[in-house]
Write a structure and sequence with these properties.
mainly alpha, 131 residues, elongated
Amino acid sequence: MEKYVLSKTIAIVLGTLTIIATLGYGFLFLLGTSLGQALHSEIDTSATDRLTLLILISLLIVGVITGAGSFGLNWNVWRIVYFGFCLVLGICLLVTFFISIGALGSTYEFMILCISMMYFLMGYLVKKKKL
């Protein structure tokens, strides 16, 4: 049986969910800005658009690294880097959860907390070299 089967499965699922959520948010962002322009109800948002697109691109990169990076866990150096990557993302999402309490709605806040815990779980499995 191949090593890191559970870690790879969680990573692929989590990476796919991150990519799907990013594409969905990007679609809603483009839909909202285009409707705002069509209805002439837009304030100058060129700086906000760049920041939002930068965040979307970085989330897509995070999703790809999460999914594809799990296939390099047999190398010792990449395993250490990937563990750090999972730990940093888990901490950042946990901080995001605490910052957003009461602002996004309980469903989205719970989703952020669950994704954070999945990153912590994935980091633990990678660190302990579990299947």
